Amino acid sequence: MSYLQKTDPELNRIIELEKKRQRETINLIASENYTSKAVLEALGSFLTDKYAEGYPHHRHYGGCENVDEIETLALERLKKLYKADHANVQPHAGAQANMAAYFALLDYGDTVMGMKLAHGGHMTHGDQITFSGRSYHFIHYGVSKETERIDYDEVERLALEHKPKLIVAGASAYPRIIDFERFRSIADKVGAKLMVDMAHIAGLIAVGLHPTPVPYSDVVTSTTHKTLRGPRSAFILCRKELAHEIDHGVFPEMQGGPLVHAIAAKAECFYEALQPSFYDYQKAVLDNALILAMELQRDGLRLVSGGTDNHLILVDLTRTGVTGMDAQEALERVGIVVNRNSIPFDTQSTWTTGGIRLGTPAATTRGLRQTEMKQIAGWILKVINHVGDKIVETQVREEVRHLCGRFPVPSID
Ligand SMILES: *Cc1c(COP(=O)(O)O)cnc(C)c1O
Questions:
Q1: Is 197 a catalytic residue?
Q2: 40-273: which CATH number, 3.40.640.10, 3.40.190.10, 3.40.50.2000, 3.40.50.2030?
Q3: Which residue is catalytic, options 184, 232, 266, 397?
Q4: What is the pTM for the complete model shown?
């Protein structure tokens, strides 16, 4: 960071503090990861200076011959990775990818089905605080109270009753495999299109450790910075017949010039995801989540749906008497970073919440494995059972710091 140090010490100081924070804490935020140095190099490059509205070989600006090649490379790699007909790598982030997909598939006021935010869905799946809830008539499905898994019979009943034009599948806090084939058959029964938002599980899907939605969906949207371990960005996949609508939905309907540096970083991310070692990484993410879940459960914490099939765990804290907010803050004090999260049928407010969400993608990238997961589970239990106990917190903080010292952060060190 030598340039900033000279030109802007004020900003540089804060960035250095963030570097220290990332080094000295264990990141269990399920939607975060650490990118490779190669991704960062592309992302932090002069490519940001180029305007390239339009698509390869159909641009509104001159000087795009190299940018055309970069975007084409990203598109080819992405289509290969997911065996997709058509791809768009221009959406700036996941919310933008969803917005563009809605523009392509819907008119304002149309009926759409999506998963309830409170049961693990994403805000852009029809929550009233976002454009999606205000622009379209969303009907929400959720999980069953008994199994805490998606209630596919309810999805079907609601679809038959409301005849949506589009059904959206995908979630931000759902620890189980999603049955895309079942969603397709429900969509077919009512003549709806199916859109899958695989933002969280894109990395697992890329290597076949979660069933792929691609053959069953009309459109698939995703972020690139979660399990896929690329830059903070997104993409859309679709059937050939929808290619024009999707591309038009992204540019010019939803956004202007693409972030060429981010597209280059995505090309590198897809390259990394196509390597055999990416399978090993995703397998380790799953193994780590499983061991963390088993350890937490064995020592008395209740997990929503009784466990996990993917990279994340939703802990129901109700029985502990500690809220999600209390747990998040206590864990942060010892250097374990998590996010509080509503659990299905939560009795706490959406601000305080009755649970926490834990994920293993970032910790796994950092090199943590079974031994460390067991240690971390022990620390989490200790802290939650002694919230506010200064002696316990100081001791765990020291142990966390020591562990962090042994595992450099790939994007920093
Ligand atoms: C993270 C996420 C998004 C939004 O991604 P942003 O890049 O934060 O806009 C959309 N959908 C789902 C399911 C997500 O998990």
A1: yes
A2: 3.40.640.10
A3: 232
A4: 0.97
